[in-house]
Amino acid sequence: MADKLNITFFPFVHHEVSSHIRAFAERLQVTFRELKVNIVPYEDATESLPISKVFKRFARIIGSNILFVFKKIFGMGEHEYYIPLSSIPRFLKRTRVKKGISIVALGEQVSGDLPMEYIYNFKDNSVINVIDFPDGITADTDFQKHFDTAMGFFSHHMANIILAVDAKRWLVYNFNASHPIYDLTKDFSKNVLHALIPKIVAPISPHKFSEFTQLPGAFDVSGEDYRNLVDDLVGGAKLFAQTDLYPDGKKIDDLAFRDNFYRWVGRLHLDNRNGMSFGFLAKQIPTKLSTLIPFAELSPSLAKRVLFEKDYFVDGDTIYIILDLAGQGRFALEVPEVWVLSQRSGSDKTNVTPEKDLIKLGLSHGRLCMQLPKGLKIDNNYRPSFDTKVILAHALGNSIIASILEYFDSDSSFVKNYKAGLGLAHWHGYFNPKGVPQGWFVHGFMNPHVACSSPQSAIYALDGKLRVFSRAQEKGEAFLGDIHVEPQHGTNICFTSLVDLAQFLINNPGVSILGNKYLSLYNI
């Protein structure tokens, strides 16, 4: 990832910065060069926006103000922000850092001249702010304190990543709600490579409705086809309230932005969400499993589409993967269509109102798909989860595994659980390795520390699941599910049901907790 990274250092420093910040920045720049990161001088990193784009941005903020006034007059409930005319010159700046180049800034910056005001957007240009280490933060600080501190920094500095430093330590905050603290005297280059660079290369980017193919009609959360699935989601969520694994979310209005201009930009970055919460609960909808086709039985039309160097082939809009199963031979498998019921982004994870909190997400013929619940009125509270790609990657892996197992053993417990609807969960903590339930296999703890919503996170989810399943098969061990560790992010787990998973956690207090306590036990 390092050789794909382009970095520039923000040249404007309006306040004196500490010696710790300057020393860290110098060392970071040297380390970036050693790791083959492309450091671009600021004067070469910028370009001038066309007048048309400046006008478009100006028109957008004027339109937002008109909408604010309109909704205020007519008492409409959806919240908007009025942007003072004094903020408009910020939109008239034509100098922008080129897309694909991230900015490192040092210390406190002044309102009206933040690095954020020189970028295209937070997806194409990450902002990394180096600040002094905050008071009251130690290796023993709990998750909630880190969470509150990080969100305050993000909103004040308008940055994707915060690096907090003193004479001995440095800390990384990003929107994964992670909080690793590193010793400046040990493994600096290694930690930059594994803990910082992946977060810049694979930034968090919220999923938008425009990315999905929306199915016609709506699904009925009270219908016969969904009743058992919804009951498990609702019942499991209530039980999860006893586990303390799902902290209260944050509303945009409660964050410490400097003014409404920055608040408005922050909400735009979150695809107009009113807030966000961390973790998810989802329920996989049982779908038709695919049949394994031995290579010797491939039809001539399919056989000619197999390419020697590829592990998949395509026939029309149908994708097949090639499986080499130890002791069983080579097979082709049509990539199955998968669907899940997931909680919307920002919802109360432990208190589900099905009619307004659930969303149906799917993967069909390589396309992201969506269907909304019957009677729902869309507003800024209703958005797909940041973790959508990971959720669907796990669902796809489950369906592939169930297809393989059904071919050889239709009485497999995993197949039966799949057909009843597996539970999927994610929280920002880890299992104690000694408490992993029998039949579940852990993977992912050696992966780079990428952000949720990134394509890389989905690839690691699917690849890790299939690898631990394959190893279990080779050893003759029963596979019931997997625990996917996302370093400096959290845990994804596929379980028999959400009620079963919550009950397991309640019956085994402390087996998983928020924060990084158990992560080091995986020997990362």
Question: What is the topological layout?
Answer:
Elements: E1 6-9, H1 19-34, E2 38-39, H2 42-45, E3 46-48, H3 51-73, E4 95-97, E5 101-106, E6 127-132, H4 143-157, E7 161-165, E8 169-173, E9 181-183, H5 188-201, E10 213-214, H6 227-240, E11 250-251, H7 260-269, E12 275-276, E13 280-285, E14 293-294, H8 300-303, E15 312-315, E16 318-325, E17 329-334, E18 338-343, H9 354-357, E19 358-364, E20 367-371, H10 388-408, H11 413-420, E21 423-427, E22 429-431, E23 440-443, H12 455-475, E24 481-486, E25 490-495, H13 498-507, E26 512-514
Parallel strand pairs: 1-2, 1-5, 5-6, 6-7, 10-20, 23-24
Antiparallel strand pairs: 3-4, 7-8, 8-9, 11-12, 13-18, 13-21, 14-17, 15-16, 16-17, 18-19, 19-20, 21-25, 22-26, 24-25
Question: Any overview of this molecule?
Answer:
The strands form six sheets. A nine-stranded mixed beta sheet has the order 10-20-19-18-13-21-25-24-23, with helices on both faces. The protein has a seven-stranded mixed beta sheet with strand order 2-1-5-6-7-8-9, with helices on both faces. The chain has a four-stranded antiparallel beta sheet with strand order 14-17-16-15, with no helix packed on it. It folds into three domains: 2-49 and 94-201, Rossmann fold; 209-290 and 335-522, 3-Layer(aba) Sandwich (L-fuculose-1-phosphate Aldolase); 291-334, no CATH class. The protein has 13 helices and 26 strands. The protein has helices spanning 19-34, 42-45, 51-73, 143-157, 188-201, 227-240, 260-269, 300-303, 354-357, 388-408, 413-420, 455-475, 498-507, and strands at residues 6-9, 38-39, 46-48, 95-97, 101-106, 127-132, 161-165, 169-173, 181-183, 213-214, 250-251, 275-276, 280-285, 293-294, 312-315, 318-325, 329-334, 338-343, 358-364, 367-371, 423-427, 429-431, 440-443, 481-486, 490-495, 512-514.
